[in-house]
Design goal:
mainly alpha, 6 helices, about 70% helix
């Protein structure tokens, strides 16, 4: 689902580290934060799996429909959870984008990575616009949180409870999604 192997490995590393941090965030004391972190960990690891360079590993034919089912279920969960918070709508869009990319990969010749141009241009463009906007908004939101956190009192928060790190993870996953959608 990408071009050169080096950029693919960087994308894998970014998504895997983000997923691992989200697993740490699941240890948070707030139940709502644990659920959000779990969904983001699934997204991070799923994106890491999709980004593995094809020269290293070409998934079997059943992998792409399996991705579609897993992220379809995650999308339904996000839709259900959206009753209590707007951020779950972002998870719904993200899960939908993963289902879309999985279906595009399943339909590409020999299930090869990086076929390019095999998606629906209007849908791909809409998703790119959404995630590019999300990245810009997440970047803007990150700046004030980092400034406030650096002013003192943040030392008591554990790694899983630091809002600036959670926002940085969301920013990195948004950038990774843009990178993946550019190859569809």
């Amino acid at each position: 689902m990408h071009g050169p192997a080096s950029s693919g490995w960087l994308l894998v590393a970014l998504c895997a580290v983000t997923g691992a941090y989200c697993l740490l965030r699941m240890r948070s004391g707030a139940e709502g934060e644990r659920g959000t972190a779990g969904g983001e960990a699934l997204m991070g690891f799923g994106m890491a799996g999709m980004a593995v360079p094809a020269a290293v590993f070409t998934p079997p034919a059943w992998a792409w429909p399996a991705y579609a089912v897993v992220f379809g279920a995650a999308g339904l969960h996000a839709l259900w959870a959206a009753r209590s918070g707007a951020h779950h709508l972002h998870h719904l869009v993200g899960a939908g984008a993963m289902v879309y990319m999985s279906l595009v990969m399943a339909g590409s010749p020999a299930h090869a990575h990086g076929g390019g141009g095999s998606g629906i241009p209007l849908l791909t463009g809409a998703l790119l616009l959404y995630f590019a906007g999300y990245v810009l908004l997440a970047g803007v939101r990150l700046v004030p949180v980092a400034a406030v956190a650096g002013s003192g009192g943040a030392g008591a928060a554990g790694w899983g409870d630091r809002p600036e790190l959670a926002r940085a993870c969301r920013l990195s996953m948004g950038m990774a999604m843009v990178a993946m959608l550019l190859t569809v």
